[in-house]
Amino acid sequence: MIKNSQKGQTLVEALVALGAAVVVVAAITIATISGLNNVQYGKNQNLATQYAQEGLEYVRHLSQANWSGFNSTYKNNKYWCYKLGSSGLTVDPDYTNSSNCLASGSIFSRQVRIDFSGVSPCIGTALIQSTVLWTDGKCNNSTTYCHTVTVKSCVTDLTTVPTP
């Protein structure tokens, strides 16, 4: 009689167990990296929204401080860069493209569009559109901005009281 006793694992069983362990570890690693990327994207999106709101508030302040000066200065120039400098927020009228608006040491390009043409819903006022663009590892080309946050608001001359 031939005795068939199996002691321990075979090489095939060991390789199957090792393969399963590798698949589980790889899945956990991919999920963790994806989660970290999503957290970074969310952080950048929150910062971009904050920066866009900051630009909007800055332009609103300019318009409320001196409407006639604001109107004459910005009426013919629709696009403006803004950068946070040591003296606060400054507007750069030499806008040619969004990469010129990139602040030093930042991934964010910030720009403001001021439109006095009376577009809806800002008829008789100015439409302010503050846009922040940024790039990250999810973009196809590292020099192209593939993420954008835009906030809009209307500003008007507060010294003029509208007639009913």
Structure summary:
By secondary structure, the chain is α+β, with helices and mostly antiparallel strands. The protein has two helices and five strands, in the order ααβββββ. α1 packs across α2.
What report would you give on this structure?
This protein has 164 residues and is an alpha+beta fold. The chain has one domain (11-155). 38% of the residues lie in helices and 23% in strands. The protein is built from two helices and five strands; from the N terminus they run ααβββββ. The protein has helices spanning 11-65, 67-74; strands at 79-85, 88-92, 108-115, 126-134, 147-155. A five-stranded antiparallel beta sheet has the order 2-1-3-4-5, covered by helices on one side. Strand 1 and strand 2 (88-92) form a beta hairpin. Helix 1 (11-65) crosses helix 2. It is rod-shaped. It starts with 10 loop residues before the first helix and ends in a 9-residue tail after the last strand. The relative contact order is 0.15.
Name some characteristics of this structure.
alpha+beta; 164 residues; 5 strands; rod-shaped; 2 helices
Radius of gyration: 28 Å
Question: Could you spell the SSE succession in H and E letters?
Answer: HHEEEEE
Mean pLDDT comes to: 81
Morphology call: rod-shaped
Distance between the termini: 112 Å
Tally of separate helices: 2
Q: Quickly give the structural class.
A: alpha+beta
> Which percent band covers the strand fraction?
15-25%
Number of strands: 5
> Strand order across the biggest sheet?
2-1-3-4-5
User: Could you describe the largest sheet, including whether it forms a barrel?
Assistant: 5 strands, antiparallel
Task: Report the helical percentage.
Answer: 25-40%
Q: Could you name the ranges where pLDDT drops below 50 across 5 or more consecutive residues?
A: none
**Whole-number count of domains:** 1
